[in-house]
């Protein structure tokens, strides 16, 4: 919270309209290629998709086993987040850019349903929703925007209900819960309070700030080729596995985004939270100004990380790393070329 109280005036690393159009194409074709590499072969096995649609037992797990992720390649699908952010902020959108967005949303919806990854769809939709809310400043629509926190909770429940029916309800939980509504509400809310409970238990049983950071360096540990070397050198162990198998249920493996940072850094965790709040404030100011800049594009990432803080450590997750890496590489390249051209 202290970090958000500071509101420095930062213009950000601006992006011209010409750059934005090129960037949109680069982001789209990179994401599209990654999706084709990941799910291209699924067309050869449509029967497996039909099993998922019909809710056959274990079908979604078969999909995960058949179409495994490829570190460094399939991770590039996350660049669709940047596409959505840039598209949302772009003042003048043409037909081709809208078509590319529809394609990415369709692919992400396919991923959310068949790969059971609802967060991927939320990541792509959130930037467009936020920009839409900012654009509404008067009338009845503004009243609706003021209710967005409640609408968002209802939206999460609906999204979970739509995608979870075929994955776990018909396969298992139909025999445990009295009705589907009870299953959806209890399951969704349990994600959050169980994550907090597990995180608190992690600190209580394994201590805090006493080991090599594990949770905040996940992206480094999972880098292609280098990740294993870094992990073996740092030797952080696996506190999630150690705790869950000894004290909890391995099925519920979220440890919250609060306690994981405390586990890694102990009392120094407040510095990390301060920096997150500070950066969130900077990106927010840039975003609401509707300027095309890399700071603006980063705000939806911080927004999602804050609303998911109780459940997962999103800002340090592997999901976000490609976005930050792409932005950093682009800005560094632009800086070097601009200096060379002087």
Please give a structural write-up.
It is a single chain. With 342 residues, the chain is an all-alpha fold. It is 68% helix and 0% strand. Helix 3 packs antiparallel against helix 4 and helix 5 runs parallel beside helix 7. The longest helix has 27 residues. It is globular, with a radius of gyration of 21 Å. The two termini are 42 Å apart.
Q: What is the element layout, followed by pairings?
A:
Layout: H1 2-5, H2 17-39, H3 46-54, H4 59-66, H5 79-89, H6 95-114, H7 118-135, H8 139-146, H9 148-169, H10 180-206, H11 218-221, H12 226-234, H13 239-247, H14 259-265, H15 269-288, H16 294-307, H17 321-340
Portion in strands: under 5%
What is the structural class? mainly alpha
The Rg value, from CA coordinates, equals 21 Å
Count of individual beta strands: 0
Total DSSP helices: 17
Which word captures the global form?
A: globular
- The whole-number mean of residue pLDDT values reads 86
The overall number of domains is 1
Low-confidence stretches: 8-12
């Amino acid at each position: 919270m202290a970090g958000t109280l500071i509101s420095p005036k930062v213009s950000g690393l601006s992006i011209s309209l010409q750059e934005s159009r090129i960037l949109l194409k680069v982001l789209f074709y990179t994401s599209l290629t990654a999706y084709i590499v990941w799910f291209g072969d699924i067309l050869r096995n449509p029967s497996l998709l039909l099993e998922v649609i019909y809710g056959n037992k274990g079908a979604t797990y078969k999909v995960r086993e058949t179409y495994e992720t490829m570190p460094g390649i399939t991770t590039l699908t996350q660049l669709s987040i940047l596409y959505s952010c840039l598209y949302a902020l772009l003042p003048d959108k043409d037909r081709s850019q809208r078509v590319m967005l529809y394609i990415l949303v369709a692919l992400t919806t396919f991923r959310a349903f068949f790969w059971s990854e609802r967060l991927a769809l939320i990541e792509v939709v959130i930037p467009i929703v936020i920009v839409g809310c900012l654009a509404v400043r008067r009338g009845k629509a503004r009243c609706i925007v003021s209710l967005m926190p409640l609408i968002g909770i209802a939206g999460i429940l609906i999204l979970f209900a739509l995608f979870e029916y075929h994955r776990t309800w018909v396969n298992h939980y139909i025999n445990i819960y009295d009705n589907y509504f009870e299953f959806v509400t209890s399951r969704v809310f349990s994600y959050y309070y169980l994550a907090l409970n597990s995180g608190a238990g992690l600190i209580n049983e394994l201590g805090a700030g006493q080991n090599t950071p594990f949770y905040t360096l996940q992206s480094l540990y999972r880098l292609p080729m280098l990740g294993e070397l870094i992990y073996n050198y740092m030797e952080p162990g696996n506190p999630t596995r150690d705790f869950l198998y000894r004290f909890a249920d391995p099925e519920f493996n979220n440890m919250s985004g609060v306690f994981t940072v405390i586990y890694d850094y102990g009392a120094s965790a407040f510095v990390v939270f301060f920096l997150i709040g500070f950066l969130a404030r900077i990106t927010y100011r840039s975003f609401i100004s509707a300027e095309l800049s890399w700071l603006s594009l980063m705000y939806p990432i911080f927004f999602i990380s804050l609303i998911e803080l109780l459940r997962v450590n999103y800002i340090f997750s592997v999901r976000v790393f490609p976005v930050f890496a792409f932005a950093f590489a682009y800005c560094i390249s632009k800086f070097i070329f601009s200096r060379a051209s002087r």
